[in-house]
Amino acid sequence: MRHIVLDTETTGLDPNDGHRIIEIGCVEVINRRLTGNDYHQYLQPDREIDAGAMEVHGITNEMLADKPRFADVLAEFLDYIEGAELVIHNAPFDVGFLDVELVRSGKNLTMRDVCTVTDSLVMARQKHPGQKNTLDALCKRYDVDNSARDLHGALLDAQILAHVYLAMTGGQGALSLDSSVDASGMPAEEKIRRLDADRQRLRTIQPSADELALHESRLDAVDKASEGKTVWRQ
Domain 2-168 belongs to what architecture? Predict the structure, then answer.
């Protein structure tokens, strides 16, 4: 399975107001492993960057003066993402900008004609209802290092999101059928501690009626907060 984790930076908030993409960052993940085959491009937007947007990503008009335009890199970009599953945090924002850029470039297609799109923000809201699900909040929740994220950046944010997505969807990077090594490649005998078959058996302690009632009460509260999606009762 080939995933492309994608992020963009823009001149402003709404492509229908003439705002443009100024940076694209993509991280390739194949079979849950980051391959290092990333895609990164700054773009000349042919317009000024809003001051508010500049405060978010730190990209200036002067930095983009000699950069190619979206149409100039479009063929290369489409070749890179074609057939992949895109993973984007708050996908409607980035896909909306990309679709407008495709129209401006004379293409009669949308991003979803090229590849499938998964919105990691929707996934996060389903897994953590009622909680903050910004990229920074997810980094904290899944112990992903985002210390380098002083400003937003398309490639940096895509790299961070790739780690968050892998953690959010299971965390394991690989499966191995070789019993002599584990998923990280470490010899199994170095990580597995065998227990004596004649060891003293662990005591089994049954919950009391009061404890069971408290447990059911807690499940009721979780069930209500998640709108009937309590996994323990499925």
Answer: 2-Layer Sandwich (3.30)
